[in-house]
């Protein structure tokens, strides 16, 4: 039997605030609600650092350039967007890099829970979704990407990834089609 989890990645206020598609969060809410109604566990993945970012080298172009208080416990932008906030019992996985696996206990949680199918959503398609998909595929997880549950600031990059790259390692579908398949 397949045990599925929905990964909602980097839906933090400081990241979602840069999303240019006003329909993105409402679509993602449909995915989260559909998963909850079907009994599919929702795992929230966030990027997070200790104060001063001792985990982020200045050689890292992405994280080394962040202000020292960004995505720390005291940063309001690090909070998960209210519309998809975790419910009691839903796990929040903190990662230290782009991939949901890097610097986190995600693999331990997935293996311990017997999960073998991951449904991926998040911001950005070319960031957390791509990195997590590649690592999860190498770890032999069955994968589904909700194309309209992912967002990238570059629409062409999003299109190429969801139409040409991701299908090599994952099923790619829409939120509506995925939630209908859960019924």
Automatic annotation (TrEMBL):
Any one GO molecular function term: hydrolase activity
Hydrolase recorded as keyword: yes
Domain Isochorismatase-like: start-end pairs: 4-177
Key words of the record: Hydrolase
Top-rank taxon, per record: Bacteria
InterPro entries for the chain: Isochorismatase-like_dom, Isochorismatase-like_hydrls, Isochorismatase-like_sf
Name recorded for this polypeptide: Nicotinamidase-related amidase
Species the sequence originates in: Actinoallomurus bryophytorum
Record lineage: Bacteria, Bacillati, Actinomycetota, Actinomycetes, Streptosporangiales
């Amino acid at each position: 039997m397949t045990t599925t989890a929905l990964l909602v990645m980097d839906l933090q206020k400081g990241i979602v605030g840069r999303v240019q598609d006003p329909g993105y969060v409402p679509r993602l809410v449909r995915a989260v609600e559909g998963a909850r109604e079907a009994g599919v566990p929702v795992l929230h993945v966030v990027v997070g650092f200790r104060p001063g970012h001792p985990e982020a080298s200045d050689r890292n172009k992405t994280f080394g350039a962040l202000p020292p208080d960004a995505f720390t416990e005291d940063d309001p932008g690090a909070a998960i967007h209210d519309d998809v906030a975790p419910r009691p019992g839903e796990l929040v996985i903190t990662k230290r890099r782009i991939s949901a696996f890097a610097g986190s206990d995600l693999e331990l949680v997935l293996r311990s829970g017997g999960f073998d199918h991951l449904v991926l959503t998040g911001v950005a398609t070319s960031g957390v979704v791509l990195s997590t998909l590649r690592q999860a595929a190498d770890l032999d997880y069955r994968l589904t990407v909700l194309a309209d549950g992912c967002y990238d600031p570059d629409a062409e990059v999003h299109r190429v990834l969801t139409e040409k790259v991701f299908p090599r390692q994952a099923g790619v579908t829409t939120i509506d089609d995925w939630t209908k398949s859960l019924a």
